[in-house]
Amino acid sequence: MASLSLPEPPELDFPTWIRQEAAVTGAVAAKDKGMHILFSGPTQSGKTTLCRIVASLRDYVVVLGSKPKDDSLDAYVRDGYLRIDHWPPTRSDIRKCRGPGCHFIVWPKMASRADLRKHTGLYLSVLDSVYAEGMWTTVVDEGLWMCDPKGLGLGAVVSDIAYGSASNGVSLYLLVQRPANVPPITWTSVGQALLWHMGRQDDVREMASLGIYDPRAAVAAVQNLRGHQFLDLPTRAQAEWSISEVPASWAA
Ligand SMILES: Nc1ncnc2c1ncn2[C@@H]1O[C@H](COP(=O)(O)OP(=O)(O)OP(=O)(O)O)[C@@H](O)[C@H]1O
Ligand SMILES: [Mg+2]
């Protein structure tokens, strides 16, 4: 019996892809709702770079930076985000917002290894106030570190946001190297998964099963990705999958 070939996503040039993304984002925001997005790929695949471009479509954004040093996070500051080490923002911080909206990166300086876990309370206050206020697009740049008990142990609060806050206008953008050790509710609540090539079969299968397409086809699509290419795998009806790549000149 002849085997049926699996469907393949179309490749879109990045300006076309981001235009479509802007249309989806705008439609969701017009209803005062949020939409969570998962960015999953190995280290250096391009998650922070793509997320920065996708987050720029939003008016009220708070990025949680938890790495001591990261050129891709510096690019948020170059784009005009105000780097702060406290929350809530002060009046003076808010006066510096260039609009439309406000763009903050909560990213305290960290000089030594001992500093890595020093700011858990700060991230917790951001997440608590996002949950209460609604509206903020919240970028968790290092999802595993933020959630895992061996990291900052904020998995329960990130889960609460994933579970309950899209109806309050919050969009959670969660970046992970792999889904393991991140509470499943955080990535099964997303409306869109952006996936890079990943080596582990189990991870690929788990991520592929999120989408509205045949998981076997999604697995094949992820395995065929090269370099900084990503698969856009929607998990909501009437959206279409595609492959694209940030042009090198747009990357930091
Ligand atoms: N599409 C691209 N084309 C060329 N270079 C890229 C592209 N995307 C990202 N890069 C570069 O690759 C490097 C890693 O990108 P980035 O920091 O976004 O990866 P990451 O997945 O967030 O990594 P990590 O998991 O370590 O945080 C950066 O130097 C960035 O400028
Ligand atoms: Mg990163």
Task: Give structural notes.
The longest helix is centred in the N-terminal third of the chain and has 17 residues, at 14-30. The model has no long low-confidence stretch (mean pLDDT 93). By secondary structure, this protein is α/β, with parallel strands linked by helices. It has a domain at 47-176. A nine-stranded mixed beta sheet has the order 3-4-2-5-6-1-7-8-9, sandwiched between helices. The chain contains ten helices and nine strands. It has helices spanning 14-30, 47-55, 71-78, 91-95, 120-133, 143-147, 155-164, 184-188, 201-208, 215-223, and strands at 37-40, 60-64, 82-84, 102-106, 137-140, 171-176, 192-196, 230-234, 242-244. Strand 3, helix 4 and strand 4 form a beta-alpha-beta unit. The protein is globular, with a radius of gyration of 18 Å. The structure holds adenosine-5'-triphosphate (ATP) and magnesium ion. Magnesium ion (MG) binds at residues 47-48, 72, 141.
Task: Set down the secondary structure blueprint.
Blueprint: H1 14-30, E1 37-40, H2 47-55, E2 60-64, H3 71-78, E3 82-84, H4 91-95, E4 102-106, H5 120-133, E5 137-140, H6 143-147, H7 155-164, E6 171-176, H8 184-188, E7 192-196, H9 201-208, H10 215-223, E8 230-234, E9 242-244
Parallel strand pairs: 1-6, 1-7, 2-4, 2-5, 3-4, 5-6
Antiparallel strand pairs: 7-8, 8-9
Helix pairs in contact: 5-7, 9-10
Magnesium ion (MG) is lined by residues 47-48, 72, 141.
